[in-house]
Amino acid sequence: MTPTTYRTADVDGFKVFYREAGAPGAPKLLLLHGFPSAGHMFRDLIPQLADRFQIVAPDLPGFGQSDMPARDTFRYTFDNVARVIERFTEVIGFDRFAIYVFDYGAPTGFRLALSHPERITAIISQNGNAYEDGLSEGWTPIKAYWQDPSPANREALRTLLTPEATRWQYTHGVPDPAVVSPDGQNLDNFYLARPGADDVQLDLFGDYKSNVALYPSFQSYFRTHKPPFLAAWGKNDPFFIPPGAEAFKRDNPNAVVQFFDTGHFALETHAKEIAESIRAFLK
């Protein structure tokens, strides 16, 4: 088995922590995590793909073990997150690569595709949305904050940062919650409890509206470039619902859509099945 190594990259003074596995020279695969997690969410997936790909899974800025600079020195927007990750790929020599995007990783990865479409060889989207069709009613309180960024609407979103909310994200829609390891969610809650992490996440909740504004641009990219595309979707996701997965086929008729009977964090229950889908898709 190819071992996973744990490294940091200096990205113009910004420390990005990342996991790496696989042989240099193999096809490259960039794994981009979501809220409120980090690269550790791929711990079960990486060993199942490392014999076929050179895999890198960074922690996004403000997440996991990557730098979380103060908000007065770094603006926590998805544009800035994507800029750091784009430079990260250049620093580590990822010149052409497939991307696996989940949740926040989707608007990050899709920005990379818009910026340098020639670098993207394929896209796997696991509950990574690019269509308003895919936004559930669960977004209502966050949309209220977009429309009125008042202190009251910001404070109302703190309930999404509690340990109970993290546990719910991991287990909602899973037929048997007993199969979901507590390890990932407990580590997420550890990172969320760091001083200042709450306001970083609230800033990103507010800026998520910039992703929705870019949906037409993402969709134009899919239509124009038609990258090999696999949507591997937890069909019981309370945030990104199945119509968002099906919508990819509107702009890229060759997109493949597969649903799994699980929730938002599909890798917690279906890492083996998703890995098999990726191997078949990228054979």
UniProtKB/TrEMBL annotation:
Residues 29-270 form the AB hydrolase-1 domain. Pfam families: Abhydrolase_1. The keyword Glycosyltransferase does not apply. InterPro entries: AB_hydrolase_1, AB_hydrolase_fold, Epox_hydrolase-like, Haloalkane_dehalogenase. PANTHER family: BLR6576 PROTEIN, HYDROLASE-RELATED. Keywords: Hydrolase. GO terms for molecular function: hydrolase activity. It comes from the Bacteria. SUPFAM superfamilies: alpha/beta-Hydrolases (SSF53474). This is Alpha/beta hydrolase. Gene3D superfamilies: alpha/beta hydrolase.
